[in-house]
Design a protein that fits this description.
Number of strands: 2
Shape: globular
Strand order of the largest sheet: 1-2
Number of helices: 6
Distance between the termini: 35 Å
Strand content: 5-15%
Helix content: 40-55%
Length: 137
């Protein structure tokens, strides 16, 4: 678009500010998101409102594609954004996610809060992530 990263500390979309708080909290301030992380939508299929899909059972698109994504990305840890995603991954996809899954509060629950408030809410995720990453280094 304008040469700027889509997921950044000062990104236009507030949703991704929380992603950056976690990345910088675990990997250091100024670290770019794309240098240490990747993001994908759980259901791996276009959907108008993914929140309704969480209650509808196992994602057929995730069943079809998630193992491929995991094999390509080869993450040390998977961060589940929201309790619904965390539940889906643990209930249906543990067989394709051998690495730890860390739960993160969904950004929609922090919409409009100051950065400091978001950091406080995300601190348990950051601490868990740091612990997992240290155990893999």
């Amino acid at each position: 678009m304008d040469g700027q990263p889509y997921i950044a500390r000062d990104a236009v979309e507030e949703h991704y500010h929380c992603h950056m708080i976690v990345v910088e909290g675990a990997c250091g301030e100024g670290k770019s998101f794309e240098s240490v992380a990747a993001v994908t939508e759980l259901f791996l299929c276009a959907s108008e409102d993914g929140s309704k899909l969480l209650a509808s059972g196992k994602s057929t698109c995730a069943e079809r594609y998630l193992a491929r994504v995991i094999n390509i990305v080869k993450p040390d840890v998977v961060i589940a954004v929201g309790s619904g995603v965390f539940g889906q991954l643990n209930q249906y996809f543990r067989n394709v996610i051998p690495m730890p899954i860390v739960e993160m509060v969904h950004p929609r629950q922090m919409r409009g809060l100051a950065r400091e408030q978001k950091q406080q809410i995300l601190q348990p995720t950051i601490m868990h992530l740091v612990k997992v990453l240290r155990s893999h280094s």
